[in-house]
Amino acid sequence: MMLFLLGAAATGLFAGVIAGLFGVGGGVIIVPALLALYTWRGVDASIMMQLAVGTSLATIVITNLSAVWHHHKRGAVRWDLATWFVPGVLLGALGGAVAAAHIDGAALKTAFGAFVGIIGVKMLLNIGENGRVTWRPSAWAQSALGGVIGGVSALFGIGGGTMSVPTLTILMRASMREAVATSSALGVGIALLGAMAFMQQGWDAAALPPGSWGYVSWLTGLGVVAGTLITTPVGVKLAHKLDQTLLKRAFGVLLVIMSYKLMFA
Questions:
Q1: Membrane-spanning regions, if any (predicted)?
Q2: What is the C-alpha to C-alpha distance for residues 163 and 17, in angstroms, rounded to an integer?
Q3: CB 3.0 to 4.6 Å from 182: which of 30, 78, 202, 207, for a disulfide?
Q4: Cα(197)–Cα(95) distance, rounded to whole angstroms?
C-alpha cells in the first residue's frame, strides 16, 4: 500500500506542473497513471476506467483552485469570458459524468485517446502567438460551447483545458496565457460536478477498492493532491515565463504522446 500511495503522490507531482503550465487540471496525466496503478493493485477491470476518471476529477477540484489563485494574482484569468461559459459547462459536466458511468471502460479509454490525439494535432497545426480576444460569440453560443467542453471533459475525467484552451486560442484568438488561466477557472466547476456525479453513479458498484465513495477513491486522491499542491505553483510560474509559441507547441506534443499511450500502450 505504501508503494501505491507513493506512486499516487509522484503522479500528483508531475500532474501539478502540467496543470499550472497548461491549464488542463492534470487529468491527461492522472487518468493513465491511475489506470496503471489500479492494474498493479488488481482493481476489477470492469470499473477501473470509471474509478480512474472519477478520482481524477476529484483531485482536479483542489489542483485547479490552486492554479486559479496563482494565475489570478498575475492578472491572467479572463473572468469576463469564464462567466458566460459557466452555465453550459456545469450542465455539460453533469451529463458527461452520468454518461461515462454507463459506457464500457475499454471503449471509454480508446475514445479518450483518440480525442486527445485529435486536439493535440490541431494545436500543433495552429502554432503561432495569438493576441487579445478578437471574437466573442453570443452569450447563448458561448454557453453552448461551455456545454460541449463540460460534457466531454467530465466524460474523460479531465479538467476542461484539453478543450477550452484550444477553443480560446484557436477559435477566439486569446493568448495562450489567458487561455491557460481561464481554463483553470472553468475546470473547477467541471471537476466538482463531475466528481459528485461519479460518486453517485458508482455508489452501489461492486468490487470497489477500500477508501472509495462510488467511483471516487479518496485514498488515491489524497495521495495525488499531496503532490499537485506542491508543484502547481511551479507550473503557473513557468506558464508566465515561457515563450507563447513554445508553450502552445509543448501542449500539442503532450496531448499527442498521451493519445498514443492510451490507445496503443
A1: 12-39, 51-69, 81-103, 139-158, 179-203, 215-234
A2: 19
A3: 78
A4: 9
